[in-house]
Amino acid sequence: MTRADQAASYFANNLNCAQSVFGAFCEKYGLDTKTAFRIASGFGAGLRKAEVCGAVSGAVMVIGLKYGQKGPEDLDAKKLCNEKTLEFMNAFREKYGEVTCRGILGCDISTPEGSQKAREDNLFKTICEQKVRESVKLLEELGY
Q1: pTM across the whole model
Q2: Region 102-125: what's the mean pLDDT?
Q3: What is the dihedral of CA 93, 94, 97, 99, to 10 degrees?
């Protein structure tokens, strides 16, 4: 099973978009999946406010696992992690046009009306699953 397939499977089995992307990489970087799922729990649905896509947030957490600052004195890692985060964010926006949940879905799922529209139009199964897969694939293209 590919990492993108694993992430899509997590998503299809009641994990949010951030949990799904983060969970697909966490063990590679020394974090168990249960802990990863707990950490990423609040990042789905654009932080529950249709802001930065949860799949993108999950990817940024992966970047932190690989390059993140280990303490206050680790300024080189801080700088590198910031650069790698910007690289991913810019590449995602360039490839897919948008990084916010509301922009990707075309509706604001933090509102009852937007959430209903997303359910009626099956956006979580179609668009969200696609963004989970695309986030994983982009991370892999960038060497994660």
Answers
A1: 0.95
A2: 96
A3: 0
